[in-house]
Amino acid sequence: MNIILLSGGSGKRLWPLSNDIRSKQFIKIFKREDGSYESMIQRVYRQIKQLDEEGTVLIATSKPQVSTIHNQLGEDISISVEPCRRDTFPAIVLANAFLADMMHIDPEEPVVICPVDPYVEEDYFQALKGLAEQADKGEANLVLMGIEPTYPSEKYGYIIPESPEQTAMVRTFREKPDADTAKEYIARGALWNGGVFACKLKYILDKAREMIGFQNYNDLLARYDTLPGISFDYAVAEKEERIQVRRFAGKWKDLGTWNTLTEAMEEPVVGKGILNAACRGVNIVNETDIPVLAMGLRDVVISASAEGILVSDKEQSSYIKPFVDTFEQQVMFAEKSWGSFRLMDMETEALTIKVTLNPGHSMNYHSHRNRDEVWVVIWGEGRTVVDGASRRVRAGDVILMPAGCRHTVIAETELKMIEVQIGENIEVQDKQKFVLDEREQHLSQ
Amino acid sequence: MNIILLSGGSGKRLWPLSNDIRSKQFIKIFKREDGSYESMIQRVYRQIKQLDEEGTVLIATSKPQVSTIHNQLGEDISISVEPCRRDTFPAIVLANAFLADMMHIDPEEPVVICPVDPYVEEDYFQALKGLAEQADKGEANLVLMGIEPTYPSEKYGYIIPESPEQTAMVRTFREKPDADTAKEYIARGALWNGGVFACKLKYILDKAREMIGFQNYNDLLARYDTLPGISFDYAVAEKEERIQVRRFAGKWKDLGTWNTLTEAMEEPVVGKGILNAACRGVNIVNETDIPVLAMGLRDVVISASAEGILVSDKEQSSYIKPFVDTFEQQVMFAEKSWGSFRLMDMETEALTIKVTLNPGHSMNYHSHRNRDEVWVVIWGEGRTVVDGASRRVRAGDVILMPAGCRHTVIAETELKMIEVQIGENIEVQDKQKFVLDEREQHLSQ
Prior knowledge:
homodimer; 5-stranded mixed β-barrel
């Protein structure tokens, strides 16, 4: 099976765990059998690989997520990166072009395209296989998944099929309705549109040729910012005559709010936390090292990260966004392809950061114009390169990097450092990247 | 007026703001007119000074509080320090001996002795003056404050007076009763015993001579650990025949639990925090830089510090102690006489600490056997002395201090540093203090 997982936008509805660079699919909240926790994207990827080890998986996403995806799924995962944000039509075309041109998938093969963040079980992936097989038959150009509604939701679009069979032609689509209208739709046999579909790869490539003069992946990438920002549903699905829907009645949950996310938690506390016996329906999700004590609460979610502490009645938690918008959003923690960092202290002219590199990984070779930096190694072993000079380092070593000097660190073991940045204008943008020359590379390996 | 403020033990009932070294009287929670916050001890000290600028104030406390008291009340405050914990009788004798021998107060003068932590208004201090004047008259040896009960409390001892007059002889004392018994006492005119009393200084010194062979302050200090651990009430007050009580009907609150403390807060939020409109009776006390968002809660207190996050129904908050005992108590923040520190990161063989020195202050000149240290100055100017070598430092400077080297820093302006400690056995006890010799002192000033 060829599958494209759409790893979508940031979001604040799961603040303080989601932020501008970390979307909900990266929050490690689901307990694995070995006691560790995995994120939504890790869970979905693992589920796919369990069902179809040889399958082709491509993640379609935008730039800010790339480091985190590599951190969570490894260096070898294939990623189609939007150079800038467009709507779902350009993103889906780009990912399909990547499949065809970069991964050399035969255009006659079927492709399944689905969001990365529904909370599902194995039967869902069986259903994706069914979609792909149906698309392969060629009875229709597009085969949608139609999810059996469990309540008259106002959050989803609806698909109205021609007949009640397992696979049927689509009669029409309906936009997100109000609850009463949703009831009517459901009475007429309507299904939720979860944005999941399958088609032959060439179908999308042909549509792209026709609609935006697509030639190949590199051409598309180069002029991506000029593409129209329209949705795939609007541009393609709603205009397609040869379109089928295949029913799915298994578990399918959108864990987009604290209320729904906590329902999927297997145990009430993730991270350091204690609930006293008088608590009922209370969840703690604590990413900090600071212990949380909850006493005598009812139907409350408590979530803490370096960026914020939320204490909310579960029902109310869906109204979080406008409040979060009022906080200054400083990213306090991020997962990078090489490891992670945590902002520990901010002064007007100094930042203190804890940097953790994974074994065998290194930062870019880079410099800063307007700040000096100091590293104090507190754990592990590795090498630093400063203006071409390589040096072995271990816990206790101090590395001085005045503004303008080029520097990197290569971790041999896991390597932890305290980085102090000092200057009048400390900005994330103040970073020039360089390539380590051969001699430096040699020295540093 | 001569007043001894008893600054008592630590406590966990206001966790996470109180801990083993910071008692509730040091929590900055009361809003001043200029918008800043003051602690209970700062508030009481300010109130006394407003009423009686020339009065003599002595704080009686134990060692762990000394740095914090200097930090909050200044270097010039007089402190009588118990070398080890005993009960109130030895502590009160020691403080009175300090008044007589170290501060040269005439033993004929009256002294008022009271706890540092009731929440009171100006009329209370007027009442203390009244107590002192009454003691000065010599009608009785001891004059207690009797607080008019506002409800049949089980938390206080009761004083039963001979008559309902403003000042009356004491008939008898009663231990903390149950609520029904308390009602009876109150019907008989009983008053709360808040541990507030006045007497002539010589009265206590004479009692001490008689009971423990007291000679002078230094003698007492030297053999303090051999003194009997008994309370002043038991040792003196309950045996005294010539004892009066003076009524006080003003505001007097013991803010010992979150429930009572939040009642005294003038505004619902101290520190970074937002309550949405659906919150009722919610208080936030946030000492961290991490913003708190509370939504849809009722009668809940939220308190956050580097040591913990409490989210509790207000009624339940009085049962906090056994839970707090289960947390590993690592002191994450402390106020010292020279400034403050905050523990930012703990690894198995490294600690990272933010150190802030107040202008003109310095650390002890000291060394460590088992750890190296690194300072990175991030704000301000000052001088360091390392093994006798003095050096001017400012933001961006890095100071290396291998194990065994003697070091200190003297702040000229406010001075902030990141301190990284590295070693296999990092322990608070690993500290040897030295005196800076004259040449070093000269260099470093």
